[in-house]
Amino acid sequence: MKSAFRLFILSVLVFLAACGEPKVKPLQGRVYNGLVFGKPYTIDCVGDSSNYQSQIDSIIQVFEDNFDMSDPKSVINRFNDYKQTDSLMTFIDSTRAFGIVYDLLRDLHANTLDYYDPTTNPLKRAWMQIGLTRSALEPNLDSIFEFVGFDGAKIDLIEIEDDHYMYQKSLLRKKDPRIEVDFTNLARAVTLDCIADFFKSRSMVQFKISCDRHLIGFGNAVDQLNVNPLGVSGDSTDQMIRLNNCAFTYKTADDKPYMIDATFGYPVENEMAYVAIAAPSLAQAEAFSEVFMIMGLEKAGEYYSNNEYSPIQSFIFYTENDTMRSASTEGFDKLLVALQTP
Questions:
Q1: What pTM was computed for the model?
Q2: Which of 59, 75, 101, 284 could form a disulfide with 279 if both were Cys (CB 3.0 to 4.6 A apart)?
Q3: Which residues lie below 8 Å from residue 149, measured CB to CB, with a gap of 6+?
């Protein structure tokens, strides 16, 4: 009887203590899902349960209208189909989305020593045809390079303003009717960066944007959202990385067959097995993950030698004498989550 009484008193005390404690208000949030350039995305938000789906859709639509290769009416496809070299293709870039991506790509092309190039699809097709026919002959690279290369002498964007510096229209020029461009990967990354900027403008406490291998992390209210797999093993043994206020993506050796060294004209064959990039923007992460995979370890090292204060952080696996080795920047090492020992 005394035991039952003590248990009753203990229960009452626990109840009273719980009543006296201030109630912790759960964090509000929302999850968004959809497609961006044909790939599914998920956005986990913390601190705001408002529905911003229409704003997200609007941002995506703007960039897809400009850069969706599957849409024959997109600006990029209209330019690729434009065959006149004695006149300029005219279009209205009211949101300036095309100009933003074009200028960013121009900067990335220069900053990566011309390795990041959106004009290489003709080279890819030529090498693919060689593989399909099992020919021992190589493509005539000199003839293809007549219209391949993100060179201002071959392709250029001109934005016309009036006397009051107000935008009026955009003009695209191509020197050769065979010139074509594909901005898809960078445009997708810029789209997600713009969605991230939108959420920051709404003072979102925290969010994580996931799309295929692409991640953008902001805020630290819920640490679990910041911790994500590195993507090396693809299972529960994978190394984890903590992303806070940065973007991340990676490329593997499986991506090499779809890459071309734009400076040389040949498919990528080097020691690189895995390249992960953490950067201030997803556009930078996307570009440099591809560029370092194409460059190889030595030239990637030269990039850092020439850009001592670069915000691009990298983690690389490469083969040396049939042995897998790794190389990383100090900044990337700080993002790695310490492995738990049993």
A1: 0.89
A2: 284
A3: 114, 117, 119, 262
